[in-house]
Amino acid sequence: MPADAESSFAFATLFPEAAGAVALDGTHVVRDYARRGVMQSERHQDASAMSAVGQGHVALVTGGTSGIGLALVEALHTRGAVAWFCARNAGAVAALRSRLPGTKGRVCDVTVSSALTSMADEIRIHEGRLDVLIANVGAMHQLDFNKAPLDEGSIRSEIDLNLTSAVLTVNTFLPLLTKSSVPHIVVIGSGYGWSPASSAPLYSAAKAGLRAFVKSLRAQLRASGAHVMEVVPPVVDTPGAMPGSGPRLAPSEIAQVTLRGIDRRLPVVFAGRTRLLPFMLRVAPAVLERMTLRG
User: Does the domain at residues 26-36+54-293 carry the CATH identifier 3.40.50.720?
Assistant: First the structure.
């Protein structure tokens, strides 16, 4: 059976009442199963646990000048938060600072501890605390180990960007987050961290490691009251998306899902096709893995 036909058959078998809708983004199916209590990100939250991030809160978004990061900075700015952001491109940082008055952008390589420490010191001096940390930096490259040995620099860069940078960022900013009465740590993961793609083995491995880090971190910090959340986006309409990777969500949609998750203190949020992941991992993990490994 051709790959596309097998995928369609698998979804149609699992979700017969909405087989046609699944090909778009899975939303109709997920809404149905979410009502049955399957999806973690849609579990009912007590109203007392909800507190909207906005006016008066101090937030930092890494990788904040493009894609999901840019959309998050814009959304936080609209809500009235004190929005700090960073990126490696000085021109992009200056342009966004100019376009969104009141935001505070800095040039920073988040794979370098000393650069992160310098930015943390600056936020401590100006704000005295950090309420929301969003570790957003990441990039996916197609690495084919059939062509090994691959360039060691490319291998290390893939891991540094997608795993090490988030760990270093959390490690550096945790002391500032402890000064907040409502600390939130948000890490942008990937559906490939839940089920890997053969075309991106290192990216998949790094994001799987990131998912494990987030779960362990949440357990470690539970007594402190810190909220730790993973965001699991599908393919997003950004310059870093691989060609031919299917329907893409707008970064602004991911930003809104993320902020709603922060408001509700959810452990994980999904968007678009990734909303199917928990259900598929529960009822048909082998089918899901076959599908994503074709990616």
Answer: yes
